[in-house]
Amino acid sequence: MELTVNGKPESHPDALTVEQLLTTLDLAGKPCAVEVNKQLIRKPNHNAHTLADGDTVEIVTFVGGG
Amino acid sequence: MPQSPITESKPAASPAPFTVAGRTLTSRLVVGTGKYADNETMRSALDASGAEVITVAVRRERLINDKGESLLDAIDLSRYTILPNTAGCFSAEDAVRVSRLGRELLEQLGNPGASWVKLEVLGDKKTLLPDPVGTLEACEQLVADGFQVLCYSSDDPISAQRIKDAGAAAVMPAGSPIGSGQGILNPANIVLILELLKDADPDYPVIVDAGVGTASDVTIAMELGADAVLLNTGIAHAKDPIAMARAMRRACLAGYDAYHAGRIAKRKYATASSPWEGVVSYIPGE
Protein backbone atom coordinates (compact mmCIF):
# COMPACT_ATOMS: atom_id res chain seq x y z
CA MET A 1 0.00 0.00 0.00
CA GLU A 2 1.34 3.40 -1.01
CA LEU A 3 0.79 6.38 1.25
CA THR A 4 2.00 9.95 1.27
CA VAL A 5 2.88 10.87 4.85
CA ASN A 6 3.81 14.48 5.56
CA GLY A 7 4.67 14.96 1.90
CA LYS A 8 6.86 11.85 1.56
CA PRO A 9 5.92 8.56 -0.16
CA GLU A 10 5.81 5.49 2.07
CA SER A 11 5.16 1.83 1.26
CA HIS A 12 3.45 -0.51 3.69
CA PRO A 13 3.02 -4.26 3.00
CA ASP A 14 -0.37 -4.50 4.70
CA ALA A 15 -3.34 -2.28 5.25
CA LEU A 16 -3.07 -0.36 8.50
CA THR A 17 -5.09 1.99 10.67
CA VAL A 18 -4.14 5.53 11.61
CA GLU A 19 -3.22 4.24 15.08
CA GLN A 20 -0.93 1.58 13.57
CA LEU A 21 0.74 4.16 11.32
CA LEU A 22 1.40 6.38 14.34
CA THR A 23 2.92 3.39 16.13
CA THR A 24 5.33 2.74 13.23
CA LEU A 25 6.40 6.39 13.54
CA ASP A 26 6.84 6.16 17.31
CA LEU A 27 4.05 8.70 17.75
CA ALA A 28 1.43 6.57 19.46
CA GLY A 29 0.18 8.27 22.60
CA LYS A 30 1.93 11.54 21.79
CA PRO A 31 -0.05 14.67 21.09
CA CYS A 32 -0.51 14.89 17.34
CA ALA A 33 -3.38 15.64 14.99
CA VAL A 34 -3.99 13.58 11.88
CA GLU A 35 -5.61 14.42 8.58
CA VAL A 36 -6.34 11.89 5.85
CA ASN A 37 -7.05 13.40 2.43
CA LYS A 38 -7.62 16.78 4.09
CA GLN A 39 -10.20 15.36 6.52
CA LEU A 40 -9.43 15.48 10.23
CA ILE A 41 -9.45 12.04 11.86
CA ARG A 42 -10.13 12.67 15.52
CA LYS A 43 -8.11 10.73 18.06
CA PRO A 44 -10.97 8.47 19.23
CA ASN A 45 -11.25 7.30 15.60
CA HIS A 46 -7.55 6.57 15.01
CA ASN A 47 -8.08 2.89 15.77
CA ALA A 48 -11.11 2.49 13.57
CA HIS A 49 -9.89 4.40 10.53
CA THR A 50 -8.14 2.09 8.08
CA LEU A 51 -5.93 3.81 5.53
CA ALA A 52 -6.43 3.13 1.83
CA ASP A 53 -3.90 2.84 -0.97
CA GLY A 54 -3.03 6.32 -2.23
CA ASP A 55 -4.12 8.16 0.93
CA THR A 56 -2.43 11.41 1.78
CA VAL A 57 -1.77 11.66 5.52
CA GLU A 58 -0.71 14.75 7.43
CA ILE A 59 0.49 14.40 11.01
CA VAL A 60 0.95 17.71 12.78
CA THR A 61 1.99 19.17 16.09
CA PHE A 62 2.68 22.63 17.50
CA VAL A 63 5.83 24.59 16.80
CA GLY A 64 6.84 28.09 17.81
CA GLY A 65 4.84 30.74 15.99
CA GLY A 66 3.43 34.22 16.29
CA MET B 1 21.43 36.89 30.27
CA PRO B 2 22.36 40.20 31.97
CA GLN B 3 19.90 41.35 34.58
CA SER B 4 18.39 44.80 34.40
CA PRO B 5 19.79 47.22 36.98
CA ILE B 6 16.26 48.58 37.37
CA THR B 7 14.33 47.01 40.20
CA GLU B 8 10.74 47.73 41.00
CA SER B 9 10.08 48.73 44.60
CA LYS B 10 6.59 47.28 44.20
CA PRO B 11 4.84 45.50 41.38
CA ALA B 12 3.23 47.73 38.78
CA ALA B 13 -0.51 48.15 39.23
CA SER B 14 -2.45 45.57 37.30
CA PRO B 15 -4.78 46.92 34.65
CA ALA B 16 -8.44 45.96 34.84
CA PRO B 17 -9.02 42.43 33.58
CA PHE B 18 -10.63 42.12 30.17
CA THR B 19 -12.61 39.32 28.64
CA VAL B 20 -11.94 37.75 25.29
CA ALA B 21 -13.78 34.72 23.98
CA GLY B 22 -15.30 34.10 27.41
CA ARG B 23 -11.95 34.10 29.19
CA THR B 24 -10.94 36.84 31.59
CA LEU B 25 -7.33 37.92 31.25
CA THR B 26 -5.22 40.17 33.43
CA SER B 27 -2.26 40.56 31.10
CA ARG B 28 -2.94 42.67 28.05
CA LEU B 29 0.07 41.36 26.22
CA VAL B 30 -0.22 38.26 24.04
CA VAL B 31 3.09 36.91 22.81
CA GLY B 32 4.25 34.44 20.21
CA THR B 33 6.61 31.52 20.62
CA GLY B 34 8.34 31.73 17.23
CA LYS B 35 11.87 32.69 16.19
CA TYR B 36 13.60 32.18 19.54
CA ALA B 37 17.23 31.12 19.53
CA ASP B 38 16.44 28.36 22.01
CA ASN B 39 13.64 27.13 24.23
CA GLU B 40 15.27 28.33 27.45
CA THR B 41 15.35 31.94 26.20
CA MET B 42 11.76 31.57 25.02
CA ARG B 43 10.60 30.29 28.41
CA SER B 44 12.30 33.16 30.24
CA ALA B 45 10.97 35.75 27.79
CA LEU B 46 7.42 34.42 28.07
CA ASP B 47 7.75 34.66 31.83
CA ALA B 48 9.14 38.22 31.70
CA SER B 49 6.35 39.34 29.35
CA GLY B 50 3.70 38.41 31.91
CA ALA B 51 1.55 37.00 29.10
CA GLU B 52 -1.22 34.52 29.91
CA VAL B 53 -2.00 33.72 26.28
CA ILE B 54 0.70 32.58 23.87
CA THR B 55 0.45 31.79 20.18
CA VAL B 56 1.77 28.69 18.43
CA ALA B 57 1.80 27.39 14.86
CA VAL B 58 0.58 24.04 13.48
CA ARG B 59 3.19 22.24 11.41
CA ARG B 60 4.08 18.77 10.16
CA GLU B 61 5.42 16.52 12.90
CA ARG B 62 9.19 16.26 12.85
CA LEU B 63 9.19 14.99 16.42
CA ILE B 64 11.84 17.34 17.67
CA ASN B 65 13.74 20.48 16.78
CA ASP B 66 17.38 20.33 15.75
CA LYS B 67 18.40 20.29 19.42
CA GLY B 68 16.09 17.41 20.24
CA GLU B 69 13.45 19.57 21.94
CA SER B 70 9.73 19.73 21.31
CA LEU B 71 7.82 22.98 21.86
CA LEU B 72 5.22 21.14 23.91
CA ASP B 73 7.91 19.97 26.31
CA ALA B 74 9.23 23.50 26.65
CA ILE B 75 6.05 25.33 27.66
CA ASP B 76 4.00 25.01 30.81
CA LEU B 77 0.60 24.05 29.45
CA SER B 78 -1.05 24.57 32.82
CA ARG B 79 0.14 28.19 32.93
CA TYR B 80 -0.70 29.43 29.45
CA THR B 81 -3.76 29.48 27.26
CA ILE B 82 -2.50 28.31 23.89
CA LEU B 83 -3.76 30.25 20.89
CA PRO B 84 -3.02 28.28 17.72
CA ASN B 85 -2.59 30.33 14.58
CA THR B 86 -3.22 29.62 10.92
CA ALA B 87 0.02 31.27 9.81
CA GLY B 88 1.08 30.15 6.37
CA CYS B 89 -2.50 29.73 5.08
CA PHE B 90 -3.41 31.54 1.89
CA SER B 91 -6.96 30.24 1.46
CA ALA B 92 -10.03 29.96 3.64
CA GLU B 93 -10.08 26.20 3.04
CA ASP B 94 -6.55 25.70 4.38
CA ALA B 95 -7.14 28.05 7.31
CA VAL B 96 -10.22 26.03 8.34
CA ARG B 97 -8.24 22.76 8.05
CA VAL B 98 -5.40 24.11 10.17
CA SER B 99 -7.81 25.51 12.75
CA ARG B 100 -9.39 22.09 13.16
CA LEU B 101 -5.97 20.44 13.51
CA GLY B 102 -5.04 22.95 16.20
CA ARG B 103 -8.28 22.33 18.07
CA GLU B 104 -7.70 18.58 17.90
CA LEU B 105 -4.24 19.01 19.43
CA LEU B 106 -5.43 21.29 22.21
CA GLU B 107 -8.31 18.97 23.06
CA GLN B 108 -5.78 16.15 23.44
CA LEU B 109 -3.73 18.41 25.70
CA GLY B 110 -6.76 19.60 27.68
CA ASN B 111 -5.81 23.25 27.18
CA PRO B 112 -8.45 25.97 27.54
CA GLY B 113 -7.44 27.43 24.16
CA ALA B 114 -8.99 24.43 22.41
CA SER B 115 -11.82 26.35 20.79
CA TRP B 116 -9.65 29.38 20.04
CA VAL B 117 -7.90 30.20 16.82
CA LYS B 118 -5.83 33.14 15.69
CA LEU B 119 -7.14 33.27 12.16
CA GLU B 120 -4.77 34.51 9.49
CA VAL B 121 -5.59 34.14 5.81
CA LEU B 122 -2.71 35.76 4.00
CA GLY B 123 -2.76 37.31 0.57
CA ASP B 124 0.88 37.35 -0.30
CA LYS B 125 4.10 35.82 1.05
CA LYS B 126 6.14 39.00 0.70
CA THR B 127 3.90 41.36 2.63
CA LEU B 128 1.99 38.77 4.72
CA LEU B 129 -0.94 41.16 4.53
CA PRO B 130 -4.33 39.55 5.11
CA ASP B 131 -6.61 38.54 2.25
CA PRO B 132 -9.82 40.26 3.34
CA VAL B 133 -12.13 38.02 1.30
CA GLY B 134 -10.53 34.74 2.39
CA THR B 135 -10.36 35.97 5.97
CA LEU B 136 -14.09 36.69 6.02
CA GLU B 137 -14.97 33.33 4.43
CA ALA B 138 -12.83 31.41 6.90
CA CYS B 139 -14.15 33.43 9.85
CA GLU B 140 -17.77 32.63 8.93
CA GLN B 141 -17.02 28.90 8.56
CA LEU B 142 -15.08 28.70 11.81
CA VAL B 143 -17.71 30.59 13.81
CA ALA B 144 -20.33 28.16 12.43
CA ASP B 145 -18.07 25.30 13.54
CA GLY B 146 -17.98 26.58 17.12
CA PHE B 147 -14.61 28.33 17.14
CA GLN B 148 -13.76 31.47 19.06
CA VAL B 149 -12.07 33.36 16.25
CA LEU B 150 -9.46 35.97 17.13
CA CYS B 151 -9.06 37.40 13.69
CA TYR B 152 -6.00 39.05 12.17
CA SER B 153 -7.05 41.92 9.94
CA SER B 154 -5.60 44.86 8.07
CA ASP B 155 -6.06 48.25 9.71
CA ASP B 156 -8.97 48.98 7.38
CA PRO B 157 -11.95 49.90 9.56
CA ILE B 158 -14.57 48.44 7.21
CA SER B 159 -12.74 45.09 6.97
CA ALA B 160 -12.56 45.05 10.76
CA GLN B 161 -16.29 45.77 11.02
CA ARG B 162 -17.13 42.98 8.54
CA ILE B 163 -15.03 40.53 10.57
CA LYS B 164 -16.82 41.52 13.77
CA ASP B 165 -20.17 41.15 11.99
CA ALA B 166 -19.11 37.65 10.89
CA GLY B 167 -18.97 36.66 14.56
CA ALA B 168 -15.27 36.96 15.43
CA ALA B 169 -14.59 36.93 19.18
CA ALA B 170 -11.95 39.64 18.68
CA VAL B 171 -10.60 41.66 15.77
CA MET B 172 -6.84 42.05 15.63
CA PRO B 173 -5.77 44.82 13.25
CA ALA B 174 -2.15 44.94 12.17
CA GLY B 175 -0.07 47.91 13.25
CA SER B 176 2.22 47.25 10.27
CA PRO B 177 3.26 44.11 8.35
CA ILE B 178 4.07 41.01 10.41
CA GLY B 179 7.64 41.01 11.69
CA SER B 180 8.40 44.38 10.07
CA GLY B 181 9.00 46.28 13.31
CA GLN B 182 7.49 49.42 11.79
CA GLY B 183 5.13 49.99 14.70
CA ILE B 184 1.69 51.55 14.33
CA LEU B 185 1.72 53.01 10.82
CA ASN B 186 -1.82 54.34 10.77
CA PRO B 187 -2.95 55.26 14.26
CA ALA B 188 -5.92 57.16 12.83
CA ASN B 189 -7.28 53.93 11.34
CA ILE B 190 -6.78 52.06 14.62
CA VAL B 191 -8.80 54.79 16.35
CA LEU B 192 -11.55 54.47 13.73
CA ILE B 193 -11.60 50.68 14.23
CA LEU B 194 -11.89 51.13 17.99
CA GLU B 195 -14.75 53.62 17.57
CA LEU B 196 -16.61 51.48 15.04
CA LEU B 197 -16.27 48.15 16.82
CA LYS B 198 -16.86 49.45 20.32
CA ASP B 199 -19.85 51.63 19.42
CA ALA B 200 -22.64 50.38 21.71
CA ASP B 201 -20.38 47.41 22.50
CA PRO B 202 -17.57 48.92 24.57
CA ASP B 203 -16.23 45.59 25.81
CA TYR B 204 -15.71 44.14 22.31
CA PRO B 205 -12.00 43.21 22.24
CA VAL B 206 -9.70 44.87 19.74
CA ILE B 207 -6.12 43.62 19.90
CA VAL B 208 -3.38 45.30 17.90
CA ASP B 209 -1.43 42.51 16.24
CA ALA B 210 1.76 42.61 14.24
CA GLY B 211 4.44 45.13 13.45
CA VAL B 212 5.60 45.98 16.97
CA GLY B 213 9.32 46.81 16.88
CA THR B 214 9.96 48.17 20.33
CA ALA B 215 8.30 49.01 23.62
CA SER B 216 6.96 52.44 22.61
CA ASP B 217 4.95 50.81 19.80
CA VAL B 218 3.06 48.81 22.43
CA THR B 219 2.48 51.95 24.47
CA ILE B 220 1.14 53.80 21.42
CA ALA B 221 -1.31 50.98 20.64
CA MET B 222 -2.54 50.94 24.23
CA GLU B 223 -2.75 54.77 24.37
CA LEU B 224 -5.07 54.64 21.38
CA GLY B 225 -7.42 52.46 23.46
CA ALA B 226 -6.60 48.96 22.22
CA ASP B 227 -7.56 46.24 24.68
CA ALA B 228 -4.30 44.35 24.20
CA VAL B 229 -1.29 43.92 21.93
CA LEU B 230 -0.02 40.74 20.31
CA LEU B 231 3.60 40.49 19.25
CA ASN B 232 6.38 38.01 18.65
CA THR B 233 9.39 39.15 16.61
CA GLY B 234 9.91 42.37 18.57
CA ILE B 235 10.81 40.25 21.59
CA ALA B 236 12.22 37.11 20.00
CA HIS B 237 14.68 38.93 17.74
CA ALA B 238 15.74 41.65 20.20
CA LYS B 239 19.40 41.38 21.25
CA ASP B 240 18.22 40.56 24.76
CA PRO B 241 14.76 39.01 24.40
CA ILE B 242 14.20 38.71 28.15
CA ALA B 243 14.91 42.41 28.81
CA MET B 244 12.74 43.34 25.82
CA ALA B 245 9.90 41.15 27.09
CA ARG B 246 10.06 43.00 30.39
CA ALA B 247 10.10 46.34 28.54
CA MET B 248 7.06 45.31 26.50
CA ARG B 249 5.17 44.37 29.66
CA ARG B 250 5.91 47.73 31.26
CA ALA B 251 5.12 49.58 28.04
CA CYS B 252 1.74 47.88 27.90
CA LEU B 253 0.95 48.94 31.47
CA ALA B 254 2.15 52.49 30.74
CA GLY B 255 -0.03 52.79 27.65
CA TYR B 256 -3.04 51.36 29.45
CA ASP B 257 -2.64 53.81 32.33
CA ALA B 258 -2.05 56.76 29.99
CA TYR B 259 -5.18 55.98 27.95
CA HIS B 260 -7.34 55.77 31.04
CA ALA B 261 -5.70 58.81 32.64
CA GLY B 262 -6.81 60.88 29.62
CA ARG B 263 -4.12 62.69 27.69
CA ILE B 264 -4.11 66.48 27.23
CA ALA B 265 -5.18 67.93 23.91
CA LYS B 266 -2.43 68.83 21.45
CA ARG B 267 -2.14 72.60 20.95
CA LYS B 268 -0.40 74.67 18.36
CA TYR B 269 1.28 77.05 20.83
CA ALA B 270 2.96 76.72 24.16
CA THR B 271 1.22 77.06 27.49
CA ALA B 272 3.54 78.03 30.33
CA SER B 273 3.75 75.71 33.27
CA SER B 274 4.96 78.54 35.55
CA PRO B 275 2.64 81.46 36.36
CA TRP B 276 2.99 84.80 34.51
CA GLU B 277 1.82 86.61 37.58
CA GLY B 278 4.72 88.06 39.47
CA VAL B 279 7.40 87.65 36.82
CA VAL B 280 10.27 90.11 37.34
CA SER B 281 11.57 89.93 33.76
CA TYR B 282 10.96 91.88 30.57
CA ILE B 283 8.44 90.06 28.31
CA PRO B 284 8.81 90.73 24.55
CA GLY B 285 5.75 92.44 23.05
CA GLU B 286 4.31 93.55 26.41
Brief summary:
Chain A has 66 residues and is mostly beta strands. Chain A is built from 1 helix and 5 strands, in the order E-E-H-E-E-E. Chain A starts with a strand and ends with a strand.
Describe the structure.
The complex is a heterodimer of chains A (66) and B (286). By secondary structure, chain A is mostly beta strands. In chain A, 11% of the residues lie in helices and 36% in strands. Chain A has one helix at 18-24; strands at 2-5, 8-11, 33-36, 39-41, 56-64. Chain B has one domain: TIM Barrel, CATH 3.20.20.70. With 286 residues, chain B is an alpha/beta fold. In chain B, the strands form 3 sheets. In chain B, strands 5-4-3-10-9 form a 5-stranded parallel beta sheet. In chain B, 48% of the residues are buried. Chain B contains 9 helices and 10 strands. Chain B has helices at 39-49, 71-74, 92-109, 132-144, 157-165, 187-198, 215-223, 233-236, 241-261; strands at residues 18-20, 23-25, 29-32, 53-60, 81-84, 116-119, 148-153, 170-173, 207-209, 228-231. At the A-B interface, strand 5 of A face strand 4 and helix 3 of B.
Q: Notable features of this structure?
A:
heterodimer, A: 66 residues, mainly beta, Ubiquitin-like (UB roll), five-stranded mixed sheet, 1 helix, 5 strands, B: 286 residues, alpha/beta, TIM Barrel, five-stranded parallel sheet, three-stranded parallel sheet, 9 helices, 10 strands, 35% helix, globular
